[in-house]
Amino acid sequence: MGGNLFWKIFWTLSGWKVQGQWPKELNRAIIIVGPHTSGWDVVTGMAARSVVPIPHAHYLGKKELFDGPFGWFFRMTGGVPVDRFSKNNMVEQVVEEFRKRKDFVLALSPEGTRQRVERLRTGFWHIAKQAGVPIIMAGMDFQKKELILSEPFMPGVSPEADMPAIIRFFAPIQGRHPEAGMGHLLTD
């Protein structure tokens, strides 16, 4: 409870607001959060999940983080360990997490990095497709101090078919470092 209060105070004092809402009945989903341009995205995202609220929200971390002395912290904050060197690829590991859990929402960056990218990664799409869960887009606009939530949608026939709409959603959103955003990915 105290943690939620901390994040709500942080959110309010920082001047952020929310456009859209989390579907209250949704307890399993992939949230793609972008543009991911700064470490502050994580802090803002932690606050957002308390304010919106987004129940059962988790994130991925390399398993080595959970083995060390701060493993308790990563688990407490919703971290889920993944083995980057496993014979099962990352998508398979995360789909297995969805199979094991009734309530599981996973936040991922479609860029996979804080650097400017020339294309979005598709792992989030494959996870959602194989797990049979919807995708929700969450844009963090640092210029407007606004979190923008899309309506949930099920992955379509291919990542390539869904990617133009995803890029159109994120392209106008200004990350903390706008030069690393997604506007340059627009093709139409």
From TrEMBL:
Residues 30-143 form the Phospholipid/glycerol acyltransferase domain. The keyword Glycoprotein does not apply. Keywords: Acyltransferase, Transferase. Pathway: Lipid metabolism. It holds the Pfam family Acyltransferase. InterPro entries: Plipid/glycerol_acylTrfase. SMART domains: PlsC. This is Phospholipid/glycerol acyltransferase domain-containing protein.
